Model the fold of this input.
Amino acid sequence: MDLRITHLYPDLMSIYGDRGNVRTLERRAAWRDIAVEVRSCTVGQTLEPDWADLYFFGGGQDQGQDLVGQDLAGANGGALRLAITGGAAVLAVCGGYQLLGHHYVPGTGPAIPGLGVLDVTTRVEKERFVGNLLAERDGETLVGFENHSGLTYLGASAAPLARVTRGRGNNGKDRTEGAVQGAVIGTYCHGSVLPKNPWLADLLLAWALARRHGAVELTRLDDREESAAHDAAIRAARSRR
Ligand code: GLN
Done:
């Protein structure tokens, strides 16, 4: 069994340690003797829609989002949409998450059209959300660090990734964090999010492997260190306002 990962716009969209998510996916597959190949694709390169099982799309500054938004408005956006229709899984963080929605309205300048593969819209409002984030999903805790001024609102076709218990999440109003639609996940959790949320990493691995290998049962890993980091991050989040 093998896994193919494409890291999208790593030169423009990988702030707050987001590239660590690719490393986590790669290692958690390799620890299970799954052969992994990682490629990247950025502005000026051509995205092959049939290759990757899993795409990672990190966060970035507004100017990076501008360039990436323009690229997604062209052939690479069509290729990514085709890949998703073909069953590829996606993890998008913050700016990447925002660009998978219908549009992102920055604080200044025109709206940036998104890919529309997540039924969400984002607009910058006056307050920037910065801090630790805790949220719950089906008995699992999601822990991360958020830093965004774009507030995201879910439409009917997108479900929340998790329910906020500490921090702000999508918009600081409806207690939702992130979005899930098919095998596409968006989240505001930077940090990297996956090393200290192994349950989410394995969910994405299972979805991605199913694309070419059918349903797979992932062997359990010794996650004592990951769990210790997860619990420490929860304690830190709960100890602050
Ligand atoms: N520029 C966007 C915002 O502030 C995304 C920032 C990020 O990716 N951290 O909402």
Notes: The longest strand covers residues 120-137. Residues 2-238 form a domain with the Rossmann fold fold (CATH 3.40.50.880). The pocket of glutamine is lined by residues 15, 59-60, 62, 65, 94-95, 147-150 (CB under 6 Å). The longest helix spans residues 198-213.
